[in-house]
Every structure is written in C-alpha cells, then in structure tokens.
Amino acid sequence: MTVSQDTLDEIALSRSEYEAIIGRLGRQPNPLELGLFGALWSEHCGYKHTKALLRTLPSSSDRLLVALGAENAGVIDLGDGLAVAMKIESHNHPSAVEPFEGAATGVGGIIRDIFAMGARPIALLNSLRFGQPDDARTRYLLNGVIGGISSYGNCLGIPNVGGEIFFSDTYKGNPLVNAMCVGLIEDGKMASASAKEPGDLLILVGADTGRDGIHGASGLASRSFEEQAEMRSAVQVGNPFLEKVLIEACIESLDLPGVVGLQDCGAAGITSAAIEMAERSGMGLKLLIDDVPRREEGMTPYEVMLSESQERMLLAVTSSMEGPVFDLFEKWDLDATVIGEFEMGGNVRIYDQGEEVSSTPVITLTDAPEYKFTSTKPGWLTKLQNTDLSTTPMPSESPEELVLKMLAAPNIASRFSIYRQYDYHVQTNTVVEPGGDAAVLRLKGSKRGIAVSTDCNGRICYLDPQVGTVIAVAEACRNLSVTGAEPVALTDGLNFGNPETPDVQFQLTESIAGMSRAADAFGIPIVSGNASMYNQSMDVDIFPTPIIGSLGLLEDVEKHSTVGFKSKGDAIVLLGTDSTWDDIEGIAGSEYLELIHGKVEGQPTIDLDLEIRTQAVCREAVAAGLVASGHDVSDGGVAVAIAESAIIGGLGAVIDESSGDRWDAALFGETQSRILLSASSDDVGAIEALATASNVPMKIIGTVGGDSLTFGHSISVSLTDADDAWKNGFTLATSD
Length: 736
Description:
Strand content: 15-25%
Shape: globular
Mean pLDDT: 94
C-alpha cells in the first residue's frame, strides 16, 4: 500500500526517501517504522545536507577527549584532573511557535547533553536573533524567549553568564534561539552514551511519557515556518525542578558499578536516544514499549516512541546490578524502569504487549541519506560585494548626534535589562559578569579559570559566507583574548535557510570552509555543534548565521582584563593597527551602514595572520599585568568601543587625532583585528615591545579622563549623554 504524500509531509520525508526505505528493508515499513525513519532521517537528527561538510571541520587536539559527534557533547582536557564539556544547540522552530516553552526546553535539552557526559553544568549562554524590535510580534517573541531562558536556568541554579542578541528584518518570521552550556568533569569521571555488552539493561529514568513534542524533530525542525502551521503540540513542555533532581541523581548514579552508559532523551525521544545508543554500542536492542511509564491513557507505540517529553534520560546498566540503581532513583523520588535489553545482532526489536511490532536494522535507521551538492556563487552576491562604498552619502546627523544614535541602537546598547533577569552569580564561580566581551569563571580548587563567549554577525556572513564565518571565529576568539584567556575549543550552531536551494547550498559550503580555515589557523578544534536548517518564512531565507561558542583557559584567573577604563591618565592604545580611524571599506556590512542607510552591502575582509598575532600579543600583555582594560573593536567600530569602555569605567576619553572628512567611516567602520587597550604610561612601552616582537602594529590614540568623549578637535559628546543613550537604548527600543 502506497503511503500518501500528506503522511510523508507530516514526518518530513520525501517520496524518494520513502522509496529508499523500501529498498533497504526489502518491504514497506509499517506506520510505526515509518515514524522511526521520519525522526531519524529528519534534518535535525540525520544531518542529511550537512554531514559531508561537517566531516571537513578540524577536530583534533591534544586536549580533545571525545571525537566530534561521537557523544552528546565535546570534552576538553584542562589538566589537573579537570575537563570541560561544551555544546551549543538550537531550538528555533519551537521558540517561533511557543517562545517561552520553546526557549525553556531548549535550555533543558542542552543541559541534559552536558550532564549526560558526567559533567556538572556550571554555565549557560544564549545567542538570539529576532526581527526589528518596533514590531509587536518581535517583542512578544523576545519577552517569551527571555522568560523561558531565565525561568529554566534560574530554577536549576545554573548561572547564565553571557551571550548576544541581534535584531534584523531577516529574522522577523523565524527567530533564532541557540543555547550553550558548559559543564565541569572532575577526576576523569566522563560518561559515555553506550552499553558495554549484550545483556546490559536499558533503564528509563525521570519524567513519565506524554504526547508532547511528537514530531518535534521531523515536523518542526525539518520544515519552513509556514509549513509548521499550528504545531503547538509538537512543542515540549519543561519542568526545571524535575530536571534539577535528575541532574543530581544521574551524576550520582555514575558512581555505581553497574552504570555503564548515560544518554539524553532529546529530539525524537526514545527513538533517537535508544537506537543511537545501540548504534554506538555495536549491538541490537530489544525494546519493551509497553513498560514505558505514561502520563496519558491510550498512547500508541508510535506516540510513545516519538514523544519528546522532557526531563528523561536512559541508562545502560549491567544485568543483575540494577538494584542499587532503582534504590538511588527512589531516593531522589524519580521513576526508573527497565524498558529494554541490548543484545547480539543488528536489529531494533520493539514489543508491545508481548507482540513484536517492529524489527528493523539499526544501521538502516541511523544511516540517513547524505546529500552532496556543488555550490555556485549567486550573481546577486557579486553585485553586493562590488558596491562602491565611497558613494555612500554622508549622514544628515551631526557626529555628536550619530554617536548617541549608534550607542542607543538595539544591536549595540546595553543588554542589562535582559541579563538582570538571569541569576549569573549562583554557584559563586562568576568572576566577570555578563556585559563584557566574555564571561570569566573560576575553577574551584584551582587558581585557573575559563572564559566563554558566543559570536556571529549574520550581515557579514550574508555578504561573504566564508569570510564572515572566519570573522565569527576570529571575534569569538578575540572576545576571549581580550580577557587574557587562550582559546582552546569551539562549538558551532549552524543556522541556515532551506538547504535544498542553490543559494543556501553555497552559503553552507562556504561557511563551513571558512570555519575550517579559521579553526585550523588558530590551531583549536571544533568539538561539538548543531545544525538547524529550513530557517525561512515566506520563502525568504534568514541570513546565514553560524554562531560560534568559544572557550578559553586562564592559567591564573586573577590575571584577567575587563572592558571599563580604570584610571585617569592611562594611555588608550589600539592594537592591531597603526591608524586611529577606519577607512571607507570598513563600513562593509557594518551596523552603521544598515542603521543609518538601510543597506547591507560591501566586501568584508580579514587578515587572519594579523588577527592571530594581535590576539597573542593581547594575551601576553594581560598575563604580564600590563593591561588596565581591554575591549574588542567590533559592532559600531572604534568610536563605540571607546564609548563603551568609558561608560563602563565611568571615565571619559580624549582622542588626539581628528577623524577627517569621512568621519562616519572613521568612527564607525568595523575593520577586523583591532583591540582597544588602556594602560598606565609606565606600561605602554612594554606593550609596544611585545607588539614589535610579534610584528603587530599599534598606536597610542589618546588618554583616559574627563567627563566627555572627545574625538579630535571638533567632536565632543558628554559622558552623561553617552551613558544615558547606551544604558537606556535597548529598553526604549523594545518597549511597547
């Protein structure tokens, strides 16, 4: 019997994929099996359009303890018996449908990926994208997403220490909600999502199973926004208080001799978790679906297998050693139920009420199709890149007015009204709070610390996906370097439009090539990640947005730098350039160009060798105690960087050199590889010596002090006015 197109559309399988399933099985799949294939062959689980590209990412390092994609998260060895698990994941489509629950369960899911590695979660970050804040729906989505993130993280007692929010029309119909989590593994107690030998038991722990989240992976994450229609039932509902208990119980269970594996029930629920566990183990699996505890009556095997009910984990436990496991979870007042057994052979055999309802080869289920494509640069992109930026008209505003307007822009203004909703001091590890370039956390019991950050500019990636992704990696690492931390690992959240279209195929190919190029150049691995496709609305794709999460190591956490100016009379230094001001080419893809002129055009560029040398000099200077403050020059250019350091430090700045005729480009151009430092006059010479030794240009551009921002002889902005614009701009822009 031929399956209808409506049925295939519901589970996001194509007709050709359905025919391939028949070919592999040698028969037609039954409805349950079709649901399994729909989930595991979905874009979200199967990575059909990205697998071939992702294999090209650099993922080798002496510090790397887990191969890329082999487990739930990447793990980096920090030495001294400490390791860090890290990963970023998206929950874009659920958040577009139900912003609070979509964002909350996105946080819950990434946390489970981390403690599934045996790591205690110690920090959360988020990277968010929305349409312009003057739109009522955007404000609804923003408030819902922030509410979901803060509620879940605060209830668990995990600090939310950083991230970013970016507004652009491209995300109006399809917001991006990416959550990153970092966890600490002590004494080599890393877990694996696999069984050890035939006869090992599969135990489901945590929440009972309901009908929420069915088709979450295939229905929401593998189709465009319009196709999702009314799919609120596909959005999971979270319970952070239950997850808190689950974290403690699961981490404690890893000390029991019988527990050999731990796996998160995330996308596609038991289907993905159990079958992928069997694949990693190289074994078959017998599943007793009727033993799964349920909170709703009359659930079918299809519904049980595909439910994405939250706060559930799977344990692989040695047979006859399950007793202490049951006792432990009973102590934590959590359900623990044997629902299967690993066995010889290569099939997943599913039983309901004693009857075998499915027997399917594991490899057939997990080996999703792999689509390879050749990419061609679209003509419209060449036209945008070749724009003559010198023809950009001068702004109608005065320089002083424009400085204030830029500081108040939603993409630049302080996010304090957002991150004050997060508890970022819980666990008492936070050394540098949200609001800087990167958060800094102490590692208790050690003098060392870590820095974490996320970064990506979708505008720049749109104008050149490869160069833009190189810049995303460079900026993510620069955010760490200005604190003094050495970048040691990256995780990626790939957010793209419809991968079946030539434009997106070009963007994907170029972006991953850029990520590989940059990671290779920095000598740091991509340790984990996530790919989210079909981010589009009204057949318009979002800007390619490959978000980079970065992790850096501080050998002495006390030797770190922060953004704000510290002392009157300190010299202000630009590292990475011998010019105070930017030139006209620096406005390519800039915040200034879009905010003031409504244009996204030009050719972004970066000198990667200079970038790496500049960051290394900055880290050396911080470690040597020569730096009073450090700040990445990025969105808004050098004028905004100076203003932010002044506002945060409560001290003005006097810049010696005037900005010239194209003062707009000079002030707000976003040429890469520039770091703004302040240092005492006694230490500037030592910084200059470090720069000279590494062939890194630098320039002393001014002095800290006063109650204004003075740029040359003709531009002066009151520090009070700048402070008001920057601190209140975001709230004003996002208020009804």
